[in-house]
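Margin note from the TA: students keep mixing up input and output lines. Inputs are the sequences; the output is the structure of the whole complex. Example:
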Amino acid sequence: MAFAIETEGVSYRAGKGFAVRDLSLQVATGEVCGFLGPNGAGKTTIIRLLIGLLRPDRGRIRIFGRPFPEQAAEILAEVGYVPERPHFDATLSVRQILRFQKAFYPTWDDAFATSLVQRLEVDPAQAFGRLSKGQKAKVMILSALAQRPRLLLLDEPTDGLDPVVRREILDILLAEIRDRNVTVLVSSHLVHELQGLCTRIAIVDAGALVATSTLEALGASGAAAGPLALEDAYVRTLREARRAGLGAA
Amino acid sequence: MRFLAILRVQWQWSRVVTAPATLLLAGLPFLILQGVTPAKLPVEVMYLVGTWTAVLPALAALLGLLVALSAWAADRRGQHIHALSLPIARWRYVLLRYQAGLALLAFPLLGFLLGTVLAVGTTALPAGLQGYPWTLAARFATAALLAFSLFFAILSGTPKTAGIILGILVALIAVNVGVAFLAPGEWGGSDFFFLILGGPGPLSIFAGRWVLVDV
């Protein structure tokens, strides 16, 4: 099986209180993996390790079989990243941001970017800093998608958004996954939201990967699964892992 | 293409510095030569022009610092997250930012050159004196480029690294000023500044005579 993401024994200490411990995670190519965990579990830190914002103290990371960060420049050309907080320059207009991105990504799809701007009703002349939270999230998502990435790393992309904007973003993501077979690693607090999106989930707690499982195995997929099936399975799995001494005490 | 993208973004932040600096530096030589007439004694003119010797290197350093600050402003505000997620080697990205900073720095430097040439060309000097517009402009440009390069390098590190380097510089200056104040004539401030600015080395460009008119 070809893997989009492979980490092997990755450890990273972020100050005194928190560390990612011996992380070995595999996400197959074309898979949509939900990344779950309580607040402060290490989801953002792990995604930052995968995008190269942080360097692991130990262990190996491979993206599409290539070592990371050794081949970061080539790999990042194929990775769309949506961070937890807006990361674009607030003084630039949406149009300027997209033009900047276009210069850096060889697979940038201008027509697709334009269609997303229209579909998501984003004003291209507006300064990024003046946009609402929902509009900023839309710009970050559309920029990541217009890169035509093979891998999407989404760190709580819909956190704090109203249901209408959230639904719009999820619909576009679902279409992208269906049409282009893109690999996705998405973290979210909204567990029920991942139920319709993911094929597998990975649960982290206190910097350690405590469980990975398909939605099918968790009984959270198919017509019989209730709307909270994944949430129930997640809470159950997390509690079991903690009792087994895998996650936080 | 990437350079132009970086340049456009950097212009957003640098224009508040470079646009007014271009106008001010173009006008500055006229201010330096204000009051200079052929009727004045050469020694009077030399004194008048010589008062700018301390101001001009300080302006060049300030210009370099401000352009360097504006080069990193956007990345610093975003905690470098956007920059580091771009598909480009870090050294290459830093080089693009540096090149864009140099391009933007060229406007005020050209403004100063134009100002010096025009000011000297339109001012009648006393006999025995002559203008050195190209020399002063070249000196100003070298000092500004040096200051830009130094501050750019310091600011390209983490805030912690930049803070440590700037902190050490400030502490060294404070210690030397203190020593010079407490023990005038002994080894102290003047020696320190002589070592840094007066000794052989690139920083000596900031010392010496910065005059537009000389014998």
